[in-house]
Amino acid sequence: MRSMLLRRVLRQKGAVIGGTIVLSVVLTALLAPLLAPHPFDATDLLNTWASPDDVNPLGTDQLGRDILSRLIIGARVSLAVGLSVVTVTLVVGVSVGMVAGYFGGRTDAFFMRAVDIVLAFPEVVLAILVAAVLGPGLLTVIVALSLVWWPGIARLARSLVLVQKQELYVDAAIVCGTPAVKIIWRHILPNIAGALLVRASVGVGFIIMAEATLSFLGLGVQEPVPSWGSMIRDGLPALRTDPMLAISASLVIGLTIIGFNLLGDGLRDALDPRLHGR
Amino acid sequence: MLEVERLCVAFRGQTGPREVLSGVSLSMRQGEILGLVGESGSGKSVTALAIMGLLGEQGRISGGRIRLDGRELTTLNPSDIRRLRGSCMAMIFQEPMTSLNPLLRVGLQIEETLHAHLPLSRAEARTRAIQLLGEVGIPAPETRVDAYPHQFSGGMRQRVMIAIAMACAPRLLIADEPTTALDVTIQAQILALMRRLRAERGTAILLITHDLGVIAQMSDRVAVMYAGEIVEAAPAGELLHSPAHPYTRLLLASLPTTRRRAPRLPVIEGQMPGPGTIASGCRFRMRCPMAVPRCTDETPVLAPFQSGRFVRCWRAGDIAT
Amino acid sequence: MWRFLARRLSSLLLVMVVAIVVTFAAIHALPGDPVTVMLSDHSADREMAARLRAEYGLDQPLAEQFLRYVGGILTGQFGLSFRYVHTPVVDVLRESLAISPVLALAALSLALVLGSLVGVHAALHRNRVQDTAIIVALVAGLSIPNFAVATFLVYLLSVKLGLLPVAGWGTLGQAVLPVVVLAIPSSAYVARLARTFMLEVLQQDFVRTARAKGLAERLVIWRHAFGNTLVPLATSAGVMLGGLLSNTVVVETIFNIPGLGRLAVDSIFARDYPVAMAVVLLFTFFYAGINILVDLFYGLVDPRIRDGATA
Q: Which of A119, B9, B36, C152 is the most buried (most CB within 10 A)?
């Protein structure tokens, strides 16, 4: 079964390309301290906006820091945020969704009302609110993005549980006297995990984009920690004379997100039984 | 009025083109009802779509001729065929529930056809639409003309479809399983409507169905299709009483009847061969109780049989053994 | 239909109530004394402090402040700014109020029109070169953050080729890049959906009927096929709008446009919470309002919904 799935995924050209990109980014992030030629915060005010040369393969930024090193470390930041947000949203969203879907009735109504209310706010508003309360920083980004994304996961988990509740194995477990928590956790969850993970993987790309956006606005990770988004912001004023910072960060971020999106779409297409007659 | 000569249609498949119609020939006179019978997959609908020029991207006419009132259709360019569609020849389909656009008023859907082919003003078209609704038996047409499809029942929707089809008084009406999705009482009403239209306007009707009962009620002549070919064509009465082709005979025999008391319903064993699977010989031979070696060695042609009949079988007319 | 509308309006009310409570909490329940910030150098001046506190109503009990807040909102007053001492929030917002909606609506219109055209075109030429090329472009359009796209475009068009101004707002030339950059992700989103829905609709029976009637292909595609994709497209309008609002903030920042979004972000950095929260309330109301309009739109387009077939 698994190898068939793998083969199906590999047949999707998009997924392969995306997967390669994602793998490169992940490796870069993991090996960042080893790969980066210079420390990301090593300023050199005598060497600001340097052109690419042997010492600084991509040049330096407004504080003389090596751009390449900062891009590499930036990968860590983006992935760390992506991973954290996905984890938090999955934990919170799946819990809420499964509880609401399984128990139904007033529990369901209550939780879904909460979900509807959160969904009624545009994303940017939630980000602003969190930023106002927590101040700019990494935590703000993670909290804000998790707040924006968990309702979608909750709704999906709930509908998946509703479908599973019709299945016989659930009735069998209930008849055996299995406690509800165990039914949810040990029986239903494994059956819906696949769909949930696909949804999560499709979302990672957008989460990384959102992190970059918040950092671009200055609400994300603060100096001197590099984020691709804040690097673009730093690079924009100097676009006329020293475009390397803004352009390189833009390229890296664009490629990474394309990679995640392609991979996510490929996974989703591979798992969707309807599309197999192509 | 309509002449189809050795029509061949091929569909683009994953492994290359597959021939779905292999030399279909039929003809219709003005005001005649021709019943086209066959199992699913025999090519009845494809024949209809080919005549209308609605084969789409996947299919194309790979051979043969189609002549409507003397005009050759296979060589026309798409916009010329489009002009004939709806005005000289019209078609109604099987599923009245989904064949109408749910978002548009029924009246508009009729008026569209009128505007596409006739120089009418908005007011004239609307009047005509109301008139047409009345002619097909929709009560209170002045109000119903502004109603939406979901406000009609299945039988009513099929009447609307007929109104749309008849709007520009076509010479030929093709009806592809028009009553299959309707219940029996409504079925009778729709068929009666079609007979009346034929009587009043002299429209020729190509009635496609797998239901022999409908054929018996409606047709002047019948053509039987199997695996992309016409295997028998004859006046309805003769075909139903003394079928000449083994397939036709078996079809008629498989109709449940209260007259014979048999332990099992007679069936035709096996399945119809797919397009392109039989290169030569009779396509029915694998399931035919009367098959002989000649059926494999020589491909039978559609030959005249008695008067006004055609059969594609080497043993046409032999008493079944 | 009316019951449906009433339900949506009460939902809107609930959302605004929550928003008002949350924004009030954000302004008042945060650590740090706004008066101290306002006084900055004059922190020792007790008299001024007392006067400011009175002016801002900060010496009142919290419950009363809340009532004042709510009352103010209902009359269109959002209190006084922390950053611009003595200035009503409304005055701070005034200029931006005219700008952001124009920007957003221009981009929205462009996105809807462009996205639909591209999506339909891709659907009609499925699996041919145009379709693949368009799909690739759409993935790129959705994936590359708009500030990255803006960077490239500004670099190309403004810096290298000098065709368009780099920043600011006021002239038509200045409006081109921001509107286009803002419209790109939304267009890609709409195009993708339009393509998917068109492909589905083109398989439907009534499209075959329309062709059988001999209608011009143009009518078949736009009136019949595309007409039936409008409702599913509208369903996704809400999601698209949320993204559009976020992108407005970014675009205003990049191009130095004095709109509501940029104002909100600046206010956060300046700890001017009343202004930031006012923008929050406005955005929320706008978002919820548009979603209700979209629901009304369904009723307008699909008669089955009007007759209460589905909710």
A: B36
